[in-house]
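Question (not urgent): is this output format expected?
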Amino acid sequence: MRRVAGIILIILLSVSLFAILHRSLNWGHHSSQENRVRGVSSNALPRGNKAITAIEYQRMLNVGINVDWMTFSRVSHRYFQWRSKGVSVPEYFREKGFSNVRIRMGKDVLTNKTALLQLAEIVNDTLEAGLIPIITYTAPELRGNPLSKAAQEHFVKWWETVANYFQGYPYLLSYDLLIESSGGIKSHPEVLNKVYSETIREIRKIDPYRLIFVTPSRVSSPFYLNELNVTNDGYTLAEWHIYASGPKGCSYNESYVENALSAALNWSKKTAIPTWLGAWRPNSYPKDRERGEEASCPMELELNFTKAMVSALSKAGIPYDINSDVHFFNITCLKWDENQDEVLELILHPQRTAR
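Got this back:
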């Protein structure tokens, strides 16, 4: 009987040990799977979940591009069509030499949960490709009705929803609160400061170290950075624009560029908050350029303007993103526009344009 009891005890211990090991292995499997879903990739850029300061982040941004993977329905459809076939669109941008993508988001995550899931897939793909993802919100409600309390509350709630969803993601992911202070909001810096303060407070409750960008009034003009009322908590940056739609009338002003950079640098010196040129365009295009229309200014001007912009930005040490992917990359056939090769070479390799 003792022998039988001993055998039974051994069997019970073995079963218990197997169950423990099984749970452990399953925990590891699910944890790994969850990490992939939440964007923690072994192929992502270094640093993992270690917090990144605003100054460090500015240095990491280098050269990026605005992308319409979540704004233009045609582009978004193609993106996810390629994704379903195992093709990573962000990898094309990393291979081209870009360091970040500014993901323009125009959908309402409060009412469209599918959009939030799609945004997460794009962020995951971007991290997998080794790119820095920056989410920016088009905020049509706030830009169109800046004095509406409902629009202001919606803006805060939109970002609170995004922050909750992406909590725990690598700190390479950042939030650019407003794509551009155009429309009705451009003349209301007091509203911008109000919604920025409330939004940052809510995000900080969820994620104290997430990097956040704010943009000034007057269509994100660097000359209005002084109107921003933000606290330097070490994880806040400012984003601004010049020539976001390209050189108007096929002409540009180098003095204007220099003055804009000086305004940004002086503000940074005063506040210790770094800045970033979130969108400038080498050429001007028709509104439906994404459907295949050609640039409206001659290539010679585009090259000269690009050289001037890149040279000035490089000297100032301010990173920049160009506007936008549809002007350089054909997502339908996954091909870069050969006519823009020389321009992209200047943009992606600023050291070659130094004067």
